[in-house]
Specification:
Blueprint lengths: L2 H18 L15 H8 L4 H7 L2 E14 L2 E7 L4 E7 L5 H8 L6 E10 L5 E12 L15 H6 L1 H7 L1 H23 L3 E2 L5 E2 L11 E4 L4 E5 L4 H9 L4 E9 L11 E10 L3 H20 L3 E4 L2 E4 L5 E4 H9 L9 H10 L10 H13 L7 E4 L21 E6 L2 E8 L4 H16 L10 H8 L5 E7 H9 L18
Parallel strand pairs: 3-5, 6-10, 14-15
Antiparallel strand pairs: 1-2, 1-4, 2-3, 4-5, 7-9, 8-9, 10-11, 11-18, 12-13, 15-16, 16-17, 17-18
């Protein structure tokens, strides 16, 4: 019998002992009156004498994460999601049944206790337990070193164990929740309406990505899991909502990496009568104010590097960044032969039959992106890689678009929206031709969206921000899997 199975059998025997003693090993309701974190905050600095005088009652519940027995007494540490607090279990202070419970306790069990706060001989802030209720028996042991589960595969696959064993992981996801709440409050305060749009689309759109496909039996049609909510949010702008946002889940049938997960969280928002310059200012304000609110500062540490989030941030045009980083002749950007030669000289992986725009973009991704450590808005993207963005008035070959980069990765993508239905149809048809030529990520022609545009959409600016990547930045995590509670993994062997 292996060690895990042996421990499990021993715990099942203890479960039987509890039942024989009249204790329900999987209890019902328990009224929690206090939280460990708040008790520590309110009373944790009080002296032994003050606690003895005040005799502060408390009732808490939690998981047993440490256990020490000696004679007719013992100590346990309870973890309740807010903090950890020691409890003192003494036979003379408990009923006979309650003391029986203490004899059957294991690490991982859940109990509820009522007692008074005091300090031990070693000055440890503790609950002296007078009543004990057994709430749930854990049949599997906690990791051998419960304070340090380090196996990455186990941490991601068994996040419930990771959360038990590593308090700092709890903090990451508590911070995630605060960031999302902060974003929502920021936008609502500025007059945005939060909306919900479909997660199953008849036509995938709003981004260049390969979708997941499903089938709706009642309708008899294939549907696509949302790759972006953009086209639906812009329909709402057409309908007369001037400012809308959605914090949404997107799904893209693509590779997995430290910055890519097949399902991820995005913020998308749209502002009528604005352009992408307005969104640059709004983005700086949103991210820097979140940093002050969540972290208390705008100069943060990320993976050993200081990142300054204090506005204003650098603005750098797409083409100029490629030229300056690689010291190239501007002619390279308009001549395919020269661009191909430059890519090979720079060891950028490209195919000999790639288009000029794909070659230039590959040079950007391989040589410019990694250098964008401090917040930088890359602006003026070519129209060929911006099928939904408005053309620049000063140069119709470029678009009114920016991408925000921090720590060498894209955080946000925004542009002045294309609201000309005839131009949009032409671009959709160009994308459809690319799709027929084998590009699985190219857009399809969305006739209903074109119909919406023909009813008239006001000048609008829209933006998408990668929530997961923003949280990675704020919590100093190198992998997206560390900020997603249940990341996608290969099937367990």
């Amino acid at each position: 019998m292996d060690e895990l199975n042996e421990q499990r059998q021993q715990r099942i025997k203890k479960l039987d002992h509890l039942r024989q003693a009249g204790v329900a090993p999987y209890g019902a309701r328990f009224e929690v009156k206090d939280r460990a974190g708040l008790l520590i905050k309110l009373h944790g600095e009080k002296t032994k004498e003050v606690l003895e005088q005040e005799k502060i009652p408390c009732t808490i519940a939690g998981r047993v994460v440490a256990l020490r027995r000696f004679g007719k007494a013992g100590f346990a540490v309870l973890q309740d999601g807010s903090d950890r607090l020691q409890v003192y279990l003494k036979k003379d202070l408990l009923s006979e049944q309650a003391y029986t419970v203490t004899e059957q306790l294991d690490l991982g069990d859940w109990i509820g206790v009522t007692g008074v706060l005091f300090r031990t001989k070693t000055n440890e802030f503790t609950v002296e337990v007078h009543q004990l209720t057994f709430l749930s028996k854990a049949l599997r042991p906690l990791p051998e070193k419960w304070h340090g589960l380090t196996d990455v595969e186990t941490r991601y696959r068994q996040r419930y164990v990771d959360l038990i064993a590593n308090p700092e992981v709890h903090q990451i996801f508590a911070t995630r929740s605060r960031i999302i709440a902060g974003i929502r409050a920021f936008l609502i305060e500025r007059g945005f309406l939060e909306v919900e749009t479909p997660m199953m689309h008849p036509i995938p759109g709003g981004a260049a990505a390969k979708p997941f496909v499903t089938h709706h039996n009642a309708l008899g049609v294939d549907l696509y899991l949302r790759i972006a909510p953009e086209l639906y949010l812009k329909r709402l702008i057409v309908g007369g909502f001037p400012r809308v946002f959605e914090i949404n889940r997107n799904f893209r049938n693509e590779g997995i990496s430290t910055i890519h997960n097949p399902e991820f969280t995005m913020l998308e928002f749209y502002v009528s009568y604005a352009d992408y310059h307005d969104l640059i200012v709004l983005t700086e304000e949103m991210v820097s104010s979140l940093a002050r609110q969540i972290l208390g500062k705008t100069v943060i540490d990320y993976q050993g590097r200081q990142i300054t989030l204090t506005p204003p941030w650098r603005r750098w045009s797409y083409h100029q960044s490629i030229i300056e980083v690689n010291k190239l002749d501007p002619a390279v950007l308009s001549d395919r032969t020269q661009a191909l030669a430059a890519a090979r000289r720079l060891n950028v992986p490209v195919d000999s039959d790639d288009s000029l725009f794909n070659i230039v973009n590959a040079i950007f991704e391989e040589t410019v992106e990694p250098n964008l450590q401090q917040p930088t808005f890359i602006t003026d993207y070519p129209i060929e890689i911006s099928p939904l963005a408005r053309r620049k008035d000063s140069d119709p070959s470029l678009t009114d678009r920016f991408e925000l980069y921090i720590a060498g990765r894209e955080i946000a993508n925004a542009f002045s929206e294309l609201n000309d239905p005839l131009d949009q149809r032409e671009r959709f048809e160009g994308q459809a031709a690319q799709r027929e030529a084998g590009d699985e990520e190219a857009h399809l022609v969305d006739e209903d969206f074109l119909r919406a545009l023909e009813f008239g959409m006001p000048p609008t600016a829209g933006e998408g921000i990668g929530i997961d990547r923003l949280i990675m930045l704020f919590t100093d995590q190198a992998s997206i899997r560390d900020v997603v509670l249940f990341p996608q993994l290969r099937p367990e062997k």
